[in-house]
Write a structure and sequence with these properties.
Trp Operon Repressor, Chain A; five-stranded parallel beta sheet; Alpha/beta knot; 2 domains
């Protein structure tokens, strides 16, 4: 997979892309990630990428031309189909199902919005998807892009060491993950549930399923409506 990120703040990505699982995924050639400075794609001598909105109003709007030029330049270097994602508050709320779908793409191009938004023609004629990471306002699309990259890259086959670990995470099957414990078996006056140290794998599996349902029912009952498991 190849991921391209278009931003006016490329320096924000260095720490995220060069640590932990994302770094290892790149070293293992499971994904190639490129960060592009949008200012390099403007024809303006001052590398300006924004302007005042038509009709008046506060703030500045990111111009369509440099964004189109950036996406077109990226697509010329990509084999296969590209999917262009605009990160903005008006987009669909990101979830695990979307992460799975995007992880199967050959090339993802993330456009990080900024200022008061982007020219509407980017939405209408360039973006394949508009995605938001929640109902709150951020300064720009850089942090959402990092969230999507992290969520998607770990789903690429071969990225995680334990191929089974993805099957037991929160939101798999629309359930939150069951409680987890590690050594020591007793800490202060709190002991690990006996079933987990029993060695009875069928009972452990049943306990985990029951606890996942219980936790989901308590914290995210909306997920149970989507789950194919019985309460």
């Amino acid at each position: 997979m190849r991921i391209d990120i278009i931003t006016i703040f490329p320096g924000m990505f260095s720490a995220v892309l060069n640590e932990s699982i994302i770094k290892r995924a790149q070293q293992k050639a499971k994904v190639s990630i490129f960060v592009h400075d949008l200012r390099h794609y403007t024809l303006d001598k001052h590398h300006k990428v924004d302007d005042r909105p038509f009709g008046g109003g506060s703030g500045m709007i990111m111009q369509a031309e440099p964004i189109f030029r950036a996406v077109q330049a990226i697509k010329k270097n990509v084999k296969g189909k590209s999917r262009v994602v605009l990160l903005c508050p008006q987009g669909k709320s990101f979830n695990q199902a979307m992460a799975k779908k995007l992880s199967k793409c050959v090339n993802l191009i993330f456009i990080c919005g900024h200022y008061e938004g982007v020219d509407e023609r980017v939405r209408q004629y360039l973006a394949d998807d508009e995605i938001s990471i929640g109902d709150y306002v951020l300064t720009g699309g850089e942090l959402p892009a990092m969230v999507l990259v992290d969520s998607i890259v770990r789903l690429i086959p071969g990225v995680l060491g334990d191929k089974n670990s993805l099957n037991f995470e929160s939101f798999e099957g629309n359930l939150l993950e069951y409680p987890q414990y590690s050594r020591p078996a007793k800490f202060k006056r709190w002991a690990v549930p006996e079933v987990l140290v029993s060695g009875a794998h069928d009972k452990i599996s049943s306990w985990r399923n029951s606890e996942a349902l219980k936790r989901t029912r308590q914290r995210r009952p909306d997920l149970l409506k989507k789950s194919n498991r019985k309460e």
